[in-house]
Each structure stands twice: as C-alpha cells, then as structure tokens.
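HUMAN: Ready with one sample?

ASSISTANT:
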Amino acid sequence: MAHVNDPAVIDRLMRTKGTWAVVGLTTNEWRSAYEVSLFVRDRMGMEIIPVNLPGDDVHGEKGYRSLAEIPAEKHPIDVVDCFVNSHKVGAVIDEAIAIGAKAVWLQLDVFDDAAVDRAKAAGLDVVVNECPAREGWRVGL
C-alpha cells in the first residue's frame, strides 16, 4: 500500500529544531538539493550535514561520504533528507535505520514502497514525494 503523508508529521519535522542529513547534497548549484538545503538551514533553522559520494563540504558545512561516517557528536540525526534516485533510496533508508535516524524524507519523485515500509517498521517518521521548501508556506516559513 502506498504511503500517505501525515500533515502533522510534516509540521513537526519542519518546526522542531534538529539535525538534517541531506543525502545527495553536492556543490552543484543546479541541483534542487543545493537550494532546498539552504532553506532547511537558513529558513527552518536546522543544522544540515551534507552527504555525498566524495564527502565534499557544501555551504560551509562539513560533508561525509555516507550516513555511517557522520561522527557520534553530530547525532542524533533527526531527519535524513533523500535527494537520490528512487533505485538508490532503499540503501539510504536502510542506512538511516542503522544509524538510528528519527525520520526519512523522500524528495519529489523519489519512491520505494518496500524501503518506506522498512522505515515505518523500524519506527521512523516518513515523508514521501514532498519538499520542505514547498511546504514552508503552510507552516509559516
């Protein structure tokens, strides 16, 4: 059964200050993750952690190659924001579960029903096919 987003979960994730690991955030200014991560950090007031294959720093924030590489002092990871292709997001969700993340947020057009079910079974909050920058107006950001 396809996931249906709970507006109360979206509101809570967007309003509760915390740490967001942004998987797929690179220095490429043309990718959505670049601007959306600035919204998450600067408008929502979250700490962001870039996660990308080379481990590049982005927006002056220390980058890591995987969620598992994020040091313990940066935990807990409140939200793993997924800017990856659907065929890659299952592995990201499994890693989010493994590190004890509290939620996963799959960006627009990112779907993996089986991985979403695993996240829910592990007790994570889940948002699918949505963008915090698009939801910002609704929560007054």
User: Anything to note?
Assistant: The chain has a mean pLDDT of 96. The radius of gyration is 14 Å. The longest helix spans residues 86-99. The chain has one domain: 13-51+62-110+125-135.
